[in-house]
């Protein structure tokens, strides 16, 4: 009798805190596992008006239900069906509202293979920044020339 009571004190019940943490991490991994991954080859199989996938910023969207509603028309969506539409989508300068609509069409993430082209978003960003930097450099040069011309003009008088 006494021995069994002493046994239970040697092996106390586990503290509730770590077990709660374990449950939490278990749930997060279940949520992560729920997000489907598509290869480019899989995305390219969905090009029908009634089943149209497109990739924007490495996320895959099912746009079939949106064809009639798109303010830019269905043709532009058909053109990028089964492809990476990041450039086309960003070139138009879509609003925040358009980006919120995208969330409802999300079906999974793009799984980029070794032979696949790199993300268009990352390829486009440096050139845009370089262009912006080039533009501001030009402004500085023009301002310098204006100041030098003004100083030269003052000297000649
Ligand atoms: C599923 C992805 C897309 C969604 C959710 C979407 C959503 C929208 C929305 C809400 C507008 C109204 C203006 C705005 O709020 O920005 C719009 C306009 C437009 N979209 Fe899209 N769009 C998508 C993909 C595309 C693609 C791939 C193109 C290709 C070029 C495109 C071309 C246009 C054009 C040209 C307009 C302007 C229409 C006008 O003002 O006459 N969109 N889009």
From TrEMBL:
Topology term for the membrane: Single-pass membrane protein
Residues of the Cytochrome b5 heme-binding domain: 35-111
Region (Disordered): 1-23
UniProt cross-references to InterPro entries, sorted A to Z: Cyt_B5-like_heme/steroid-bd, Cyt_B5-like_heme/steroid_sf, Cyt_B5_heme-BS, Cytochrome_b5
NADP as UniProt keyword: no
Signal peptide: none
Stretches that traverse the bilayer: 138-156
PROSITE patterns tied to this protein: CYTOCHROME_B5_1, CYTOCHROME_B5_2
Any Gene Ontology biological process: sterol biosynthetic process
Gene Ontology molecular functions: heme binding; metal ion binding
Entry keyword set: Electron transport, Endoplasmic reticulum, Heme, Iron, Membrane, Metal-binding, Microsome, Transmembrane, Transmembrane helix, Transport
Any GO CC annotation of this UniProt entry: endoplasmic reticulum membrane
Localisation per UniProt entry: Endoplasmic reticulum membrane; Microsome membrane
Record-linked Gene3D superfamilies: Cytochrome b5-like heme/steroid binding domain
Family: Belongs to the cytochrome b5 family.
Record function comment: Membrane bound hemoprotein which function as an electron carrier for several membrane bound oxygenases.
Protein name: Cytochrome b5 heme-binding domain-containing protein
Source organism per UniProt: Saitoella complicata (strain BCRC 22490 / CBS 7301 / JCM 7358 / NBRC 10748 / NRRL Y-17804)
Taxonomic path: Eukaryota, Fungi, Dikarya, Ascomycota, Taphrinomycotina
């Amino acid at each position: 009798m006494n021995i069994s009571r002493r046994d239970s004190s040697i092996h106390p019940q586990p503290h509730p805190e770590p077990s709660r943490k374990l449950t939490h991490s278990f749930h997060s991994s279940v949520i992560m596992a729920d997000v489907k991954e598509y290869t480019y080859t899989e995305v390219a199989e969905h090009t029908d008006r009634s089943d149209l996938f497109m990739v924007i910023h490495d996320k895959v969207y099912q746009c079939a239900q949106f064809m009639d509603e798109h303010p830019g028309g269905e043709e532009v969506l058909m053109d990028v069906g089964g492809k990476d539409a990041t450039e086309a989508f960003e070139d138009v300068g879509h609003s925040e509202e358009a980006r919120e609509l995208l969330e409802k069409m999300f079906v999974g993430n793009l799984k980029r293979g070794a032979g696949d082209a790199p993300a268009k978003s990352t390829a486009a960003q440096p050139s845009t920044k370089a262009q912006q930097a080039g533009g501001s450099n030009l402004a500085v040069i023009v301002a310098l020339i204006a100041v030098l011309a003004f100083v030269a003009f003052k000297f000649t008088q």
